[in-house]
Design a protein that fits this description.
The complex is a heterodimer of chains A (475) and B (320). Chain A has 475 residues and is an alpha+beta fold. Chain A has 2 domains: 20-211 and 307-340 and 410-472, no CATH class; 347-407, 2-Layer Sandwich (Dna Ligase, domain 1), CATH 3.30.1490. Helix content of chain A is 31%, strand content 24%. Chain A is built from 15 helices and 23 strands. In chain A, helix 2 packs across helix 6 and helix 3 (79-103) crosses helix 13 (327-335). The longest helix of chain A has 25 residues, at 79-103. By secondary structure, chain B is mainly α. Chain B contains 15 helices and no strands. The longest helix of chain B has 33 residues, at 9-41. The two termini of chain B are 31 Å apart. The chains are: A alpha+beta (475), B mainly alpha (320). At the A-B interface, helix 2, helix 9, strand 8 and strand 10 of A face helix 1, helix 5 and helix 6 of B.
């Protein structure tokens, strides 16, 4: 197996020797019959279809259920690497939560001159209804899925914070289940940290954030937009695994100052809602009046302390890429420490000097819309034609505040299984972090997304990306 | 005993309809099976009559005739199996089974979900293209096996909580409705005129009725070779040993509704209607039914059966 020398190869040293995290795995792999492995590869896909781990895509004619391609070579991180990474994640998430509280209260960070006020004014995710209100337990970001990219042995960078409604955790769990079903012997050989208790940890963490009026065993419900939502499988999966209810807006209404769900014997109060519905659809009385996905009046109940909403409305502020560019300052401001996890270098086109630099170097940069997500609305300079670059230049000039730019990252590679054997492909990593009043809980593992196309740096499933099981080794 | 936990009304509705649609798809498959059997043993002209009667019995005559001017086996079974314009086709039914299973996903066991999902994948693939003579029996078998697997998974893996009873209630209401409809259509629509009663065409058609509810062997086991309208009606209406008789369906339904009342600590309208239905059906003889008029009896039964279904939806808040 060869790899480009410009990228950090997580499996092999530049001299071709196997890095220690992968040594047990490689030993096992070398003893396998490639033909048998190819068959296993097909089996994995059948297994995903049978279990129904699909996402919905709506085309012009009819809905289609698609699989996210699964690669059966695990991505392996050793115990030491993970420990250092965890500390950085914990610091960042703790700062995010403190930041949210401050933003909706005294805004000390703005008063201290560390964050320009206009970033809040122009932020679409900013919710005036949240001002002066503290959610139960003081938790805003109950579930965070930070996107990380790696460039060296201990060099991880945060690409996005995803403090709103990070998805994909069902793939972390099902990828592991599939791996254990296909290669039980591997797990006897390699000391891999378990991820399977994530749903239990999630249930516990959510229950710990219940409002004071909650029952002793809080009633937790997952709020889904419904079976036509692209991530419905995940919503149903998590509710099932947590033993929680899976509710839609039409199941809920406000009864006696509480949000209640219609059971077979009448309305019953819900204590914690893990919502997979965006802010603007949450309450037609407060936000989008046309929404049928939400619950009329839920925001009033929320502000009166009658329910916990996870994540809190208004946390989308952190997902704004202009705010992102200030994260190093934000981390330092609230933790009093230097950030352990660096940001990817970011030029804010709103600043004149940066704008000039960006426009001069478009062919080398990645330019993103401040409010965009999912790999859409971006320019990958090195992979674009002159015409595309010029078109994008016009967009930036017309609205500099709407864009940020980053260098093209040297994403690390991991091997994937191909017809011709193992071949390196670029990967990123999304660990899942749970926040409760007294704990930040990071599940050892996460979702590794992989760009299946040779040389590609885009890992999004909507654009040819796949996923891998992610192993954190025990000490 | 652990904590009592009640499900969402919407989820209960999903379970109820998941098993209703499953039963409906399977009933159509059984009917088709009987039709194929007849077609294989008759000449072409009679076969055309058979397919006409299969379509009529399925209750899809109007939709069929809007699409086709004639009756051939190939057209008939493809219409029942996979016709897009036919909302009652097995393909659409099974799609609804799976959709309701997804909707109630966290209230059903993984085993039941996989039984539904795996079979849906197979059925969806088998019905992707028109089904020819060489594949039709296999396809029908797949659909019937899907029902068997789902029922097995339900029995073997589901908590005996309200969801289990909602699923079975849906199944038995649908089954009773289908049997009553088959009998009624048979008695009134299939025969060209009363003079045919007792003719070989008549006997043959009664045989098809038995086959279409998979009751031919059971009936012969109990009644030797005696095939007559009265005997068959008695068997399909009153014999509570046969799992596809009206008496059996209502006896099962009664126990599901009683279990639901126990779980909820109170009876509802559905329990009251069920009691009325029981009173009417018990102690009834086939002679009394024929004196009253079979059609009149079946119409009353069907409307009462439907009323129980509606009352369940009301009692347990299926809809907002």
């Amino acid at each position: 197996m060869t790899g480009s020398a410009d990228f950090f190869n997580e499996m092999r040293e530049p001299d071709g020797s196997v890095r220690s995290a992968y040594s047990d795995y490689c030993q096992w792999y070398d003893g396998q019959d490639p033909k048998l492995l190819r068959r296993k590869h097909d089996e994995a896909e059948t297994n995903f279809r049978k279990t129904g781990i699909t996402f919905n895509v709506y085309g012009e004619d009819e809905a289609e259920e698609r699989l996210i391609p699964f690669d059966m070579v695990p991505r392996i991180i050793d115990a030491g690497e993970w420990r250092r990474l965890s500390r950085g994640i914990e610091q960042r998430v703790s700062a995010l939560n403190a930041f949210m509280h401050d933003l909706y209260h005294r805004q000390e960070i703005v008063r201290a001159g560390r964050l320009p006020e206009r970033l809040l004014r122009n932020n679409e995710a900013w919710l005036p209804n949240m001002v002066g209100f503290t959610p139960p337990g003081g938790v805003y970001t109950h579930i965070v899925g930070i996107d990380l990219v790696r460039t060296g042995p201990d060099e991880f960078f945060v690409l996005e914070d995803n403090a709103r409604t990070p998805s994909g955790v069902s793939y972390m769990l099902e990828n592991r289940e599939t791996m254990m079903a296909m290669f039980p012997e591997l797990f006897l050989r390699c000391p891999v940290e378990s991820v399977s208790d994530y749903p239990r940890r999630l249930a516990k963490s959510l229950a710990a954030c219940a409002p004071e009026c909650a029952e002793e065993r809080p009633v937790v419900a997952v709020l889904t937009p419904g079976i036509y939502n692209s991530a419905y499988f995940e919503h149903a999966f998590l509710a099932d695994q947590m033993g929680a209810e899976l509710v839609e807006g039409s199941d809920l209404r406000v009864v006696d100052g509480r949000v209640a769900m219609r059971t077979t014997s009448g309305y019953k109060a819900v204590d914690v809602i893990y919502r997979r519905v965006d802010d603007e659809f949450l309450d037609p009385l407060t936000f989008n009046p046309d929404s049928v996905l939400g619950v009329p009046g839920i925001m009033d109940v929320y502000r009166a302390g009658g329910i916990t909403i996870a994540n809190a409305p208004g946390t989308g502020v952190c997902d704004d890429k202009a705010i992102y560019s200030f994260m190093p300052e934000i981390v330092e401001f609230y933790t009093g420490e230097k950030p352990l996890l660096p940001n990817v270098e970011t030029w804010r086109c709103a600043d004149e000097d940066s704008l000039k630099y960006v426009l001069d170097n478009l062919a080398e940069l990645v330019v993103k819309e401040v409010h965009g997500s999912g790999g859409y609305g971006m320019l990958v300079g090195p992979a674009s034609t002159k015409k595309e670059i010029e078109e994008f230049r016009a967009k930036i000039v017309a609205d500099p505040e709407g864009y940020i730019a980053q260098p093209t990252l040297s994403l690390s590679t991991c091997p994937i299984f191909t017809k011709k054997g193992l071949a390196p492909r670029h990967v990123d990593l999304r660990p899942y972090v749970l926040v409760s009043p007294d704990k930040i809980d990071i599940t050892p593992g996460g979702l590794t997304r992989v760009a299946l196309k040779e040389g590609s740096l885009v890992v999004n499933s909507s654009q040819g990306g796949g996923t891998k099981d992610t192993w954190v080794l025990k000490d | 005993m652990g904590a009592k936990r009640l499900m969402l009304g919407r989820t209960a509705n999903g379970l109820f309809w998941m098993f209703r649609y499953l039963e409906r798809a399977e009933n159509t498959a059984r009917l088709l099976d009987a039709g194929l059997r007849m077609a294989l043993t008759r000449d072409l002209v009679t076969a055309e009559e058979e397919w006409r009667s299969v379509i009529a019995t399925s209750g899809q005559k109007t939709a069929y005739e809007a699409k086709h001017a004639s009756y051939t086996g190939m057209q008939a079974w493809n219409f029942l199996l996979r016709e897009k314009s036919n909302p009652a086709s097995i393909l659409s039914m099974f799609g609804l089974v799976r959709q309701n299973a997804r909707l109630a996903r966290n209230a059903i066991s993984g085993e039941l979900w996989e039984a539904i999902n795996e079979n849906w994948l197979i059925i969806d693939e088998q019905l992707a293209k028109p089904v020819g003579e060489n594949r039709v029996l296999d396809t029908v078998k797949t659909i019937r096996r899907a029902g068997t697997m789902a029922r097995g998974a339900l029995q073997g893996s589901m908590l005996r909580e309200e969801g289990y009873h909602f699923a079975l209630a849906g199944m038995f209401i649908e089954r009773a409705d289908a049997i009553a409809r088959i009998l009624d259509i048979k008695y009134y629509l299939l025969l060209p005129s009363l003079s045919y009663v007792g003719s070989s065409l008549d006997t043959g058609q009664w045989d098809t009725v038995l086959r279409s509810v998979s009751g031919d062997r059971a009936y012969r086991w109990l009644n030797a070779a005696q095939v007559d309208a009265r005997g068959i009606c008695e068997f399909l209406i009153l014999d509570d040993r046969f799992p596809r008789s009206l008496a059996f369906c209502h006896s099962e339904l009664r126990s599901n509704l009683a279990a639901l009342a126990r779980i909820h600590g109170s009876e509802g309208e559905s329990n009251a209607l069920m009691r009325d239905a029981d009173t009417r059906l018990t102690n009834l003889t086939i002679d009394e039914i024929f004196d009253q008029g079979l059609h009149e009896f079946l119409v009353e039964f069907t409307s009462c059966n439907a009323a129980i279904g509606n009352a369940i939806a009301q009692d347990y808040r299926f809809l907002a």
